[in-house]
Design a protein that fits this description.
The complex is a heterodimer of chains A (322) and B (205). In chain A, 28% of the residues lie in helices and 42% in strands. In chain A, strands 1, 2, 5, 6, 9, 10, 11, 12, 13, 14 and 15 form an eleven-stranded mixed beta sheet that branches. A two-stranded antiparallel ribbon of chain A has the order 3-4. In chain A, strands 7-8 form a two-stranded antiparallel sheet. With 205 residues, chain B is α+β, with helices and mostly antiparallel strands. Chain B folds into two domains: 48 residues, no CATH class; 156 residues, no CATH class. In chain B, the strands form two sheets. In chain B, strands 6, 7, 8, 9, 10, 11 and 12 form a seven-stranded mixed beta sheet that branches. A three-stranded antiparallel beta sheet of chain B has the order 3-4-5, with no helix packed on it. The longest helix of chain B has 13 residues. Chain B is globular and about 55 Å long. Classes of the chains: A alpha+beta (322), B alpha+beta (205). At the A-B interface, β2, β3, β4, β5 and β6 of A face β1, β2, α2, α3 and α5 of B.
Chain lengths: 322, 205
């Protein structure tokens, strides 16, 4: 359950509200306050815990760990900005009714003309089931398409982190606040669809339901992420870092030069085929391989051959997330 | 849906200026000094009238109470006799038969299924209460707010209706409950063992 921190209207001390509560008691001065916004949307923000420097360090560490220092050093940091992504969060009790009509079957025993017993499955009368739905509902959903930002786990974060009331000018001064693309009606529909029990579908021929959310707590929760840019040569590589836990959620740092395993493998195959067929073909294959070797590496010596062959397993190197 | 800035409002009685205590899930607040009742309306503490009903007992339980009419495939049912017929009840109510049926929705904290069961039992017993002079008496914390009553009302009325009708999809599709004169009432109960008992309705909670 997320906790929202306010200032106590009486003593000014930190005043905690658990998500979904209507009122709370200040632990310093002992007075009760209620939270407003019953009919509106609670706009909350999860404050960033990772600053720009720490986010950059997090990316550097990832590159060092997965591709080595030399590879990490080939990228230079080219700036970054903080973004606040909106997520819908609905808590309440899903209540309503559900009715469904279900096919039923029964085993019928009969005897054929030879007196042999057989059983067959016969369709019975449809069963009609009416049930009440009453279950707690916790729903999290991105208020837009954030696939470009990788996986941002606001659902989990909202449950364990402290959040603050959204102070738009203060938050906009720290970073860019993304507007929600998905409306509250759509978020509610998705939450209700989740609440309806559609797990049993076998034999269901018709289903009707009317479910609503009681004691609804509706919040638009802004989650912080860092959008960083790294550069190598003329190319810019965007990186997304979770500004709460510092994890790199999306990046793609390719190797500067793509490895070409085809040529070394083709040379080996050529030599094997040549020398196993006849000596003349073997000599011709060796000459051709030497020519290709010189063309590929610019030198014809043992160290160049070893270096070229060592490149085979390194194909596809680089660092990628999301 | 209005976009509201989230903020806190101190719980101070608008009549005597005392700080009011409240449970986390409470939606109606009662001043321990003067007994007045308040709620949050449009971001401000506003008075909420509670009607105290007469009866035996010293524990007041809050209920949302309203007259209701049912919309269904047969048309609108606005009297107690029609509602009784839908419920499959055979009961001689003479004078009550032509008046609007009364719905009771528990306003205190209960598991949803239990709230529906108690609301159903009270609604089908057609209790006759008069107003009491003991206004201001403390009552159990109200946790169901006014906007949630409609949905609970539909479920309570549905729970009272005979199963044959509930299993009819055409009936369900056209079914609706319209409330009028919604008010918050406090009904006295007596403690009997570990349960609360209302003598007029012969109902245990």
């Amino acid at each position: 359950m997320a906790t929202i921190i306010f200032k106590c209207p009486q003593c000014g001390g930190p005043f905690e509200f658990a998500e979904g509560d209507n009122s709370s008691l200040c632990r310093f001065c002992g007075i009760s306050s209620v939270i407003t916004g019953d009919t509106g949307i609670h706009r909350l923000v999860i404050p960033e815990r990772v600053d720009l420097k720490a986010a950059r360090t997090s990316v550097r560490k990832l590159l060092d760990r997965e591709a080595g220092q030399e590879f990490a050093a080939s990228f230079s940091f080219n700036g970054g900005s903080l973004l606040f992504l909106p997520f819908w969060r609905i808590r309440g009790i899903a209540m309503g009714w559900q009715w469904c009509e279900k096919e039923t079957f029964k085993e019928e025993i009969g005897y054929d003309e030879n007196g042999a017993r057989y059983t067959r499955r016969v369709k019975g009368q449809n069963e009609r089931i009416f049930s009440l739905i009453a279950k707690p509902l916790i729903f999290n959903s991105p208020a837009g398409d954030y696939t470009a930002f990788g996986t941002v786990r606001v659902g989990l974060a909202g449950d364990v982190l402290q959040c603050e009331p959204m102070d738009y000018p203060a938050v906009a001064a720290r970073g860019s606040v993304i507007d929600p693309l998905k409306g509250v009606a759509q978020a509610r529909q998705e939450a209700l669809a989740m609440a309806r029990d559609t797990s049993e579908s076998e034999g269901i021929v018709r289903r009707e339901s009317r479910v609503r959310i009681l004691s609804e707590w509706l919040a638009l929760m802004y989650y912080p992420i860092w959008n960083l840019h790294f550069k190598r040569g003329d190319r810019v590589y965007p990186v997304i870092v979770d500004a709460v836990n510092g994890e790199v959620s999306r990046c793609r740092f390719p190797r500067e030069k793509q490895r070409e395993p085809f040529l070394p493998l083709a040379m080996i195959a050529l030599l094997v085929i040549g020398w196993t067929t006849m000596p003349v073909a073997g000599v011709a294959a060796t000459i051709l391989a030497a020519y290709l070797m010189k063309y590929r590496t610019g030198a014809l010596n043992i160290s160049a051959i070893i270096r070229m062959l060592a490149e085979i397993p390194e194909r596809g190197g680089g660092v990628q997330r999301g | 849906m209005v976009d509201e800035a989230i903020r806190t409002v101190p719980l101070i009685c608008g009549r005597c200026g005392l700080w009011m205590a409240a449970k986390k899930e409470q939606v109606v607040y009662q001043c321990s000094g003067c007994g007045d009742t308040w709620e949050l309306a449009q971001g401000q503490i506003a008075p909420r009238k509670v009607v105290y009903l007469s009866g035996n007992g010293d524990i007041m339980l809050p209920f949302w109470n309203a007259e209701f009419r049912i919309a269904c495939q047969e048309g609108a049912i606005a009297d107690t006799a029609g509602f009784m017929a839908l419920c499959g009840l055979i009961k001689s109510l003479d004078d009550l038969a032509t008046i609007a049926p009364q719905l009771y929705v528990p306003a205190f904290a209960l598991p949803p299924q239990q709230a529906i069961r108690i609301g159903r039992n009270m609604t089908v017993r057609f209790p006759r209460f008069s107003e009491s002079a003991h206004a201001g008496q403390p009552f159990m914390a109200v946790t169901i707010c006014e906007r949630d009553v409609q949905q609970l009302a539909e479920l309570i009325v549905l729970a009272a209706i005979v199963e044959g009708r509930r299993n009819n999809p055409d009936f369900l599709a056209s079914f609706g409950v319209e409330l009028s004169g919604l008010r918050l009432v406090a009904i006295p109960f007596t403690l009997r063992g570990r349960k609360l008992y209302q003598a007029q309705m012969n109902l245990e909670v």
